[in-house]
Amino acid sequence: MFKGDSEINRKKLNILHVVNSPWWHAISEYALGLSKGLKAKGYKVIIVTLPDSLLIKRAEAEGLTVITNLRLNHYNPFYFFADLRRMIRLLEEKEIDILNMHESFGFAISCLAAKLAKRPIVLIRTRGTFMTPKGHPLNRYLHNTLTDKVIVTSKFMREKCLKHLKGKESHYLLIYGGIDTENIKSDVPNLALKESLGIESDAVVIGIIARFDPVKGYSYFFEAMGKVKAEVSSWKLASKIKFLVIGYEAEFSTEELLTMAENCGVREETIIINKWVNLSEMLSIINIGVIASIGSEANSRATLEFMASGKPVVSTSVGVIPEIIEDGKTGYLVKPKDTQAMAEALIKLLKNRVKCNSIGSAAQKLVQEKFQEKILVEQTEKVYWQEWEKKTTIKKLNPDD
Description:
CATH topology of the largest domain: Rossmann fold
CATH superfamily of the largest domain: Glycogen Phosphorylase B
Number of domains: 2
Strand order of the largest sheet: 3-2-1-4-5-6-7
Shape: elongated
Strand content: 5-15%
Largest sheet: 7 strands, parallel
Helix content: 40-55%
CATH architecture of the largest domain: 3-Layer(aba) Sandwich
Order of helices and strands: EHEHEHEHEHEHEHEHEHEHEHEHEHHH
CATH class of the largest domain: Alpha Beta
Structural class: alpha/beta
């Protein structure tokens, strides 16, 4: 799929990522990881986002330039031309070579701005969502004609794009999301952390990492945990099993999750953390990871984080996850909302420590080979350069265009 595998030794491009969402979600994580990696390679990277975005602090902590004064999240025709002029001015003043859009809002403005700016600009659209693209003529024109390449983060999204946007297969490139495995060191459990959370040193911890939202399947997670508790009630393990929830409040509050846990009979075993944590340390005390989502999971960073830490994952078969987990080898897949199947998979792992460890090791190896952040950066860098060289060559041949 990608040409030019030799080391890229050219001038460093100026890259603008537009991530105009207030939320911290898979798209934000994908864009930030990519931006951070490109910056480390010497590229000048700027992120455009909203004034209230949760991305700002994280991006600035990585030394990235953040711009928040562009109005893109609207369909108001009275603002359109003023915002178009602002975008063109930004592209020209910052001498942007690559404009990478990560959200639907502002896509039309970005396409026109890249076309009208007085410099060659490569426009890349990254689709890192699970939502089906709208197939109307304007959207097809924006994606297939004005955009130089569309990057998708999963095979299922690529199939959706080809079906609804009717573009050429070569126009839609698959680049999976990745994680910085150097930041995940969880071979040795942090026993002090366990103690601080009231967890015994030899307790088994089943963990879920997700924002507190219905799409993440929390009601089904707690129902499955209730079944696990009932099954192991006669084991020596029974009094030493804990369910650890890590995330932040969204549609659900912490109190609402605790009520779900209580209704399923696992309130005493449940620990909820709703603040920013050292993820590597948290992963070190988790024995088995769970993804209970009933939708979403276009990138499923949490799945990759569990796997990178050498922990087996029991997950619903939604989004990109069946492309990551091979059932029975690098984890277990169950149907969404099937709490009995989820509980049975967890019990299978709890019964067989050797199997649990072998699946965790295989999962860790897979992430190292296929889902590292540096792979995402390298593949995207190649796309940028291929399209940049193509565009500047055409510009030289047609200087009046």
